[in-house]
Amino acid sequence: KGQTWDGSQWSETGFWENNVPSYEVDGQGNLKPEYDAAHKILGGSWRMPTKTEIQELIDNCVCTNTNDYNGTGVAGMIFTSKKAGYTDKSIFIPATGYGLTSMLQESNSFFGINWSSSFNEGKAWTLSFDTNDLEASEFERIVGFTIRPVSK
């Protein structure tokens, strides 16, 4: 089920505006918990990752593309830690495509993009990947990307 930043039903016209109301973000430019979709849905200490955490994931992991994660038939990227003592730890982020104009886009290709809670001049930072690229990038909030929640 798609969610907007305030937890209500996703709408293709809901995010054309590039301005994030100042009451939604903290002093570091990250969404406050009450405006964080992962926290709103899951509660507790669950939240969307920050841009800094996304960059740390990119910088500190060996990234491997897979078309069949653990025999599930799901394509995506496995992030395995390069840090000493954690090299046996990994997370999987599926290549899900994205929602735009009430349709799922890129769902049959190897493309994944996940929201962060961080903003820069009204655009939100994301973790973006395909078969040849992995980066933190910015997008308008009009596009329906997935969220990979984090928790302490």
- Biggest sheet, open or closed, and with what strands and sense? 3 strands, antiparallel
The helix/strand series, from N terminus to C terminus, equals: HHEEEEEEEE
Helical amount = under 10%
Termini gap = 25 Å
Give average pLDDT, whole number.
81
Structural class: mainly beta
Rg, Cα atoms, Å = 15 Å
The largest sheet has its strands arranged as 1-2-3
Low-confidence stretches: 1-17
Beta strand count: 8
Strand share of the residues?
Answer: 25-35%
Shape: globular
Q: Supply the number of helical segments.
A: 2
Description:
There is one protein chain. The protein is 10% helix and 31% strand. It is mainly β and 152 residues long. A three-stranded antiparallel sheet has the order 1-2-3, with helices on one face. It has a three-stranded antiparallel sheet with strand order 6-7-8, covered by helices on one side. The model is unreliable at 1-17 (pLDDT under 50).
